[in-house]
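Input structure tokens:
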């Protein structure tokens, strides 16, 4: 049987020598002299003819001369190398004739070695200088060619600005954009208090004078100081083409910014919303809904953000981000791309109330953390995520006179006003940039990131109100869908375009980022209460699944008229936990489709909801129907209140809670303290809860948080 030999690396003690390295002036001279001395010694002992050494030296000199010519080395270098070969071979020939073991031979060899080393050093420096000079000459040639083009551009625009604006500027630099779509002129304004506004307000006239294509502009902005101006000249309209959302779904952060679109020079625009709110304005047909999906895509990619969406128009802005989770993946847990979706006034009120509770509770609970970080802003991270409230047509809610919307508007303004430091910010959309929409001082002060999608529409788009102080912005410059103007604190208002994002790409993003979404921190989740914990309950999401599938007449059915179950390859629906043991699915009611039944099963498994009336254990005998008053109409509401109370008890944790506290949380159900006390008593008898204390200090702890008692055995 053959055995394998294991080779170990060779280790050296002391100085490590690299035998593969090239020779320098010292090692080269040392190698040449020692080689010549060894050859002379061996040749003397073997009686080698002296002429052989001279012949070898001549051949070496000729070979190095040919190599140097091929490498285009300097004549000085070629001569030095040829002379080294001839001198070395000449000494060897003389030593073979007279004997190498004399002081005269050794001394002359040493002098020869020093001379060879000095010559090699000098020629090396000379060759390095020649190479650097050649590179510099090439760069100067390129610079001369570029400078000629830039000088022509500079002269052209100096004349144009003098002709159109009536001022004479001095161009300091012209930077050509790498994308080839334009250039930037850095110029010095004339003395006498001239500002960049003199050029900025003549944007349209300058563009026309330069014969720029439609959609291209010459926009002026402040320079490095108040006596300088930057003029961005766009020569190619990149906004006219539809650009799809990039297929890069890499992680993002609230601190590194999220991309919302691209400028005319093809650079991405990043928004930083840690302390800012945002306002997106766009009339019907301008691409506003697509822009909302682009915003949600950036938030979904972030590892420290949770997105709550309010869309009173049937929740259309958030549905594409929820449905992939309901349909599920192949043997994988899929979480929705957004954390909460409200499509009704009732659900929106619950969401805003939860946001206010979270923000106010964070102010108290995280004081020590902020003190340790030496900041007055909550340190947002994957463990304590920022909550982004995206409210479609939220600006219209703020100015509405409807009682329900006025109630929502009050809460939205409270969130904007009070919760900046605690990591809760808003993104509002509106149909137009009008005085009524922008009349609220809170919106104008807090929404420093502003977007106007024009799509060529001029009605209700007053850009001067949305971007006060910006000069030269004209709606005609952005006639295409998905284009408009965007301004942030980091970049002034200017033309931009947003990517086109399609439903299949939204699904891809949801699947790619499902395991990246953070969970709401325990402190905030406790403050959010059962409204947040049961946000995906079937009773509150049935409106999503009611429209699932094809029309009834196109759906095949069995003999009982029920819809058959989906194929085995279909996903398991919305799964809110990846670490639980799922129970068998209960049988679907006759009026439920398979997707709704699966969704109900997973919600029940996540939140331990009680069975519906009439769906108890099989061994429990059916209760006889008694004649008389039937109160079953109130059973569903009572059951919902009871489940909400159980959720509050679980959320209370090891500290527990009391009947009065639970009753206060259930005011909307009309539940009294006596009813809650009865539930607690029943749960205590059944072992679901543990009673601690007595009298006014009585509190109840759910069994999963109750202290463990030692067993009898």
């Amino acid at each position: 049987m053959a055995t394998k030999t294991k080779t170990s690396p060779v280790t050296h003690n002391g100085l490590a020598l690299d035998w593969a390295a090239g020779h320098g002036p010292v090692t080269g001279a040392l190698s040449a002299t020692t080689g010549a001395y060894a050859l002379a010694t061996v040749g003397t002992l073997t009686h080698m003819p002296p002429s052989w050494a001279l012949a070898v030296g001549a051949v070496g000199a000729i070979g190095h001369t040919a190599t140097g010519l091929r490498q285009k080395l300097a004549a000085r270098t070629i001569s030095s190398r040829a002379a080294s070969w001839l001198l070395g071979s000449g000494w060897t020939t003389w030593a073979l004739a007279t004997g190498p073991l004399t002081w005269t031979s050794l001394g002359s060899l040493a002098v020869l070695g020093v001379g060879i080393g000095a010559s090699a050093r000098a020629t090396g420096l000379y060759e390095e200088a020649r190479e650097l000079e050649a590179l510099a000459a090439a760069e100067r040639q390129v610079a001369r060619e570029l400078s000629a083009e830039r000088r022509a551009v500079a002269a052209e625009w100096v004349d144009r600005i003098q002709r159109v604006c009536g001022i004479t500027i001095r161009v300091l630099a012209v930077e050509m954009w790498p994308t080839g779509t334009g250039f930037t002129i850095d110029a010095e304004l004339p003395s006498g208090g001239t500002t960049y506004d003199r050029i900025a307000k003549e944007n349209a006239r300058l563009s026309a004078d330069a014969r720029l294509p439609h959609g291209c502009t010459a926009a002026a902005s402040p320079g490095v100081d108040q006596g300088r101006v930057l003029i961005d000249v766009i020569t190619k309209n990149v906004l006219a083409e539809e650009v799809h959302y990039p297929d890069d779904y890499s992680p993002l952060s609230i601190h590194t910014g999220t991309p919302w679109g691209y400028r005319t020079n093809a650079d991405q625009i990043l928004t930083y919303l840690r302390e800012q709110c945002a306002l997106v304005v766009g009339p019907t047909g301008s691409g506003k809904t697509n822009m909302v999906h682009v915003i949600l895509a950036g938030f979904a990619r972030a590892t420290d953000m949770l997105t709550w969406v309010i869309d009173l128009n049937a929740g259309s802005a958030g549905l594409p981000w929820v449905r992939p989770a309901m349909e599920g993946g192949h043997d994988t847990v899929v979480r929705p791309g957004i954390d909460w979706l409200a499509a009704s006034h009732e659900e929106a009120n619950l969401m805003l109330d939860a946001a206010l509770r979270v923000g106010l509770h964070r102010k108290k609970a995280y004081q020590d953390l902020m003190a340790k970080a030496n900041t007055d802003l909550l340190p947002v991270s994957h463990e304590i995520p920022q909550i982004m409230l995206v409210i479609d047509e939220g600006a219209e809610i703020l100015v509405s006179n409807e009682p329900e919307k006025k109630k929502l508007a009050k809460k939205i303004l409270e969130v904007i006003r009070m919760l900046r430091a605690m990591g809760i910010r808003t993104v509002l959309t509106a149909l137009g940039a009008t005085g009524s929409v922008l009349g609220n001082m809170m919106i104008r002060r807090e929404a420093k990131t502003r977007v106007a999608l024009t799509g060529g529409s001029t009605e209700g788009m007053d850009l001067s109100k949305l971007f006060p102080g910006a000069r030269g912005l004209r709606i005609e410059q952005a006639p295409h869908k998905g284009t408009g103007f965007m301004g942030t604190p980091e970049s002034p208002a200017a033309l931009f375009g947003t990517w086109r994002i399609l439903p299949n790409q939204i699904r891809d993003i949801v699947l790619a980022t499902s395991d990246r979404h953070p969970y709401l921190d325990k402190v905030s989740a406790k403050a959010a209460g059962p409204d947040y914990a049961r946000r995906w309950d079937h009773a509150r999401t049935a409106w999503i699944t009611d429209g699932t599938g094809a029309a009834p007449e196109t759906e095949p059915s069995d003999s009982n008229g029920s819809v058959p179950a989906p194929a085995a390859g279909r996903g398991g629906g919305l799964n809110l936990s990846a670490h639980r043991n799922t129970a068998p699915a209960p049988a679907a009611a006759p009026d439920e489709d398979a997707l709704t039944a699966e969704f109900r099963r997973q919600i029940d498994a996540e939140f331990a909801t009680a069975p519906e009336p009439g769906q108890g254990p099989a061994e429990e005998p059916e209760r006889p129907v008694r004649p008389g008053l039937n109160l079953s109409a109130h059973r569903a509401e009572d059951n919902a209140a009871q489940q909400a109370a159980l959720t509050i008890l679980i959320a209370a944790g090891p500290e527990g809670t009391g009947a009065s506290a639970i009753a206060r949380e259930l005011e909307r159900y009309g539940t009294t303290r006596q009813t809650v006390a009865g539930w607690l008593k029943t749960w205590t008898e059944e072992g679901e809860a543990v009673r601690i204390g007595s009298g006014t200090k009585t509190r109840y702890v759910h069994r999963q948080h109750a202290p463990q008692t030692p067993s009898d055995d």
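The two ends are 60 Å apart (CA to CA). The CA atoms of residues 433 and 465 lie 7 Å apart.
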